[in-house]
Design goal:
Blueprint lengths: L1 E4 L2 E4 L1 E3 L5 E3 L8 E4 L16 E4 L3
Antiparallel strand pairs: 1-2, 1-5, 3-4, 5-6
Length: 58
């Protein structure tokens, strides 16, 4: 998962195989959340197009 902070995409955590979400980062000041398919253990930045991209309310 990714959080967008004014155009800067930051890692937001991982979704485990059982659906458990381990959130990292603060979504309170993010403008959007995205989900991509990444290698095991995640990536420093998105390496694929988003499967989900959702604007968060202000």
């Amino acid at each position: 998962m990714w959080l967008d902070h004014n155009g800067t995409t930051r890692p937001a955590g991982l979704i485990e195989h059982d659906g458990t979400v381990i959130l990292a980062g603060n979504p309170a000041d993010a403008g959007a959340v995205g989900v991509t398919l990444e290698p095991a253990g995640g990536s420093a930045r998105p390496t694929t197009d988003p499967l989900l991209l959702m604007t968060l309310p202000a």
